[in-house]
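Bidirectional sugar transporter SWEET, Salvia splendens. Tokens?
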Amino acid sequence: MSHQAKALHLVFGVIGNGTGLFLFLSPSITFKRIIKNRSTEQFSGIPYVMALLNCLLAAWYGLPFVSPNNYMVTAINGTGVVIESVYVLIFLVFAAKKEKGRTLALLFGILAIFSTVALVSILAIKQENKRQLFCGLVASVFSIIMYASPLSIMRLVMRTKSVEYMPFLLSLFVFLCGTSWFIYGLIGNDKFLYIPNGFGCFLGAMQLILYCIYRKNNEDVKKATIDGSLEMGLANPQQPKSIQS
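Tokens:
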């Protein structure tokens, strides 16, 4: 890698760290509400547990003995592990018994997945290129799943013609974060970074396009109600029984 490429690699890594931090902090308003009301209401803990797994796998992938020159990937995702852990802990404290049990079961599941990946990569895979391939594939799959989680929100926006449940800043930082790490991966010729983040860049762009199309209708559309959870810290109000998604 030339000196110019190294400089650009660093620049986009720094931008990716900044936008990633804003993305991780975006649900903080939701958790202020949870703490204030001492209840998780109808919020779902699943997105935060899955985000924790994604951060753990990405932070592991960025370690020097797994993939070279990706310390900035470990830096931001290590920070994400701390932030998402706090979210999950708060959720468990204030969740109802049934929701708490479901969230704990999922938490143990994702910790088992991460532990398996880490142990296999250390104990069973001795060649560095094979270790990078194994860890990169697993991290990429869960990264794509995380980026795809707002698809339900996008469907809701198109159905209700309202962006009430798709905040502009959240969509913007999904786009900026995906774009930054996509370019970072291209410069470093790392397919396990540019493929999932290219997907995230595309979905972020689609969210911004939907926002531009429907934002003017936002004040005229009644509050939409749905079953299930809206990812990335959004509420999941109940949907009328006559409407099923």
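The mean pLDDT is 85.
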